[in-house]
Design goal:
Layout lengths: L12 H8 E4 L4 E2 L21 H7 L1 E8 L2 E7 L3 H13 L2 E13 L5 H9 L3 E2 L40 E8 L1 E2 L5 E2 L2 E3 L4 E2 L7 H4 L15 E2 L5 E4 L5 E12 L9 E14 L5 H10 L4 E6 L2 E6 L6 H10 L9 E16 L5 H23 L10
Length: about 375
Amino acid sequence: MEEDVSTASGLPEHLELQRTRVICGPDMNSHTESTLSAHQYAPMGTSQAFSLAKFKKGFNITITKYEGDDMEFELKGISCAMANSLRRIMIAEAPTMAIEHVYILNNTSIIQDEVLSHRLGLIPLRVDPRLFKYKVRGGLRVALGCLPGAVLDCTSKEENATQTNTIVLKLKVECRRLPDGSVENDKVYSKDLQWLPEGSEIPAETGARFGESQATVVADVRPTYEDILIAKLRPGQAIELEAHCVKGVGEEHAKWSPVATTWYKLMPEVVLLQPVTGDLADELAAECPGLFQVVERGGSRAVMVADPRQHWKQLEKVRRLSGEERWSPYLQLRKVKDHFIFTVESTGAWRPHELFNYAVDVMVSKCDKVLEGLQTFPSRSFDY
């Protein structure tokens, strides 16, 4: 694209460029800071105070890809602080169900009990956590990301496992050699975990007693991926255990994080500082084929920039070219400060769009708490 920096804010072009764009130079990025003060450009006679009407006009969400548990969308018109807050909430404050207690009845494999338990805890489960309650575990603060109204008594003792706060899974696999010489069950996968909707089969040891079957509330409980390798066995070795799952958040342990990861990147811009025509246009198009295209314009050949989102691998080369003496007068790589390309990779407990909606609800509840707290202060300023 050719250089075009909007000056709707009333700032000169060079200040508007600093305010809205990150300049990606060959050695370092510049103008990476955000405008946080309403009076940052007061000497220029403009105010950067927040305007709800302006925010509504500039804010936009566009889903660009949605495949299974992965979603990519563009978030435009918000600050980096807000975008990062939503990202952190999705990672650390949205609840899931994960294996917390493992009761091992038999383990003759070469994997130690504690290592086996750790591997089981990291297996993501495809079950809606909103159908279950938090279980108080010895006074631990487990509901860090809960919405207002979800009261948690952090001084209580360990709560008993019931059908409302615990899911019970069973694993029983024995490796043996068949008459034809082949080996059966030499690999234990996550698909071997069996859901027990009626509750624990050893309640005297686990203390888990269900008043009714979970099948009336939950259709099915299973690992998100059935091919996760848990252990390898040899003939004669066996594993038998019960795994109890409880509700938690990633802020307490990563096994409760509902995403494999979620991240964002700024919208890139490849800018032509001046027209590139003639033989120079052919030469530039050869440097980054696809990103730079030669078109006929006014009887001469000129370079046109394609959508940089379709040529991510070319952007670092553009950055390098912008530092070379031959191309520095023509090229510049920029990033738009308030335009984010978000990617959410859910582990299966939440649909990606539901996870984002939940993060927004939590963000709103946090803002409500701040406003509620501010009401306790006097309306006038403090006297010093």
